[in-house]
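Reviewer has doubts. Consider these tokens.
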Amino acid sequence: MAEQADVVIVGGGVTGLALAFEVSRLVPKRVVVVEKRYTGSGASGRNVGRLRAMQLTPELAHLAIAAQRKHERLVDELGFNTLFWRAGYAWVLYESSEVERMTDLLPMLQTLDMPEPRILDEEETLRLLPILRGGEKPAGALLGRDALVHHDAVVYAYRRRCQAAGVQILEGCTVTGVRVENGWVSGVDLEEKWIHAPVVVNASDGWSREISAMAGVEVPNTPFRREVLVTEPARPFMGPAVTFYRPVEGWFNQTLRGELVAGVTSPSEPEGIRQESSAAFLDRTAHALVQKAPRLGHLRVIRQWAGVYDMTPDRKPLVGPVHHPKGFIQANGYSGRGFLLAPLVAELLADWIVTGRRPELLALCEPNRFEGRAKEPIQIGDYYEGYTRQ
């Protein structure tokens, strides 16, 4: 005999837990979260908690600004310190074409309701980020007041609130099928039982294409590995978090504990879910960081890991109910913005589920926009190129 629920959420990461919490505080519903391993075992526990409001399109920037503010409120909403702090953010530019691109972008960013970003020249960049001195000369930087958060603290706080609200969290349970009857979802199959529910939410991120297929829904979502390394702690030596995209995508920042966290991606990273890190990544990242910031060379790496980006062709998430089957809802495809967007998306989507009205902020996340285009390729070799599809 099937267990009964009002809402089943597939995926126990930050999106699934946040959505379960938001639904449960709006209406008295029986909410079940199904997680293949343990809560936070996917991308939610394998990231560095960067909350960047500066985005390349106004639609994404508006959503990101609202999402950042949601994170700022979490300490009160969840009753737990998530270690949100405005470290600042420097998008370091190494080519004149990048400076031109960011200069063209600046008027759009300055019209948004956010701490005003500005373009720095080479001298100002090195004064703000002395850690770059002696390395490859930057052409400038785009500077903003973006934030960081501790990802484990956020996941733990949501899990705690879900348990207090009576949300059932099933860990170590694999979804083997999504049941559909007469054009409506009717629940999910697990390995040893099934749960009957009129609403099933796909919050599995890196596994979203697989779960969608179980419901007969084709999406272009494609997982790609992203790796991270962490060094031994050191005295504070930098303020703003740094990101660069030339010659390839890379980033580094210092944590509140003094560790350096960093990563440099491979433009030829194959698609697929891989959560093991590699010696090639360590070599690539160390080489790039020493070129950019030679004074980092003395730091010893103490651990590294890998997570997954659930990528869409246009870099926008899929959020909301699909056309068919009724009751199947997407909440995935964050393309590297999952930890930033998940708490806000959960709040808005919970309201949508309860009221039936789509929040305006989620208009850019239309979940049916790839109908008939599920095989559209994902461009990952050049960060900027992905946004030509916007």
Summary: The mean pLDDT is 95. The first strand starts at residue 3 and ends at 4. The helical segments are 14-26, 58-78, 96-110, 122-128, 151-164, 208-214, 279-292, 338-355. The chain has eight helices and 20 strands.
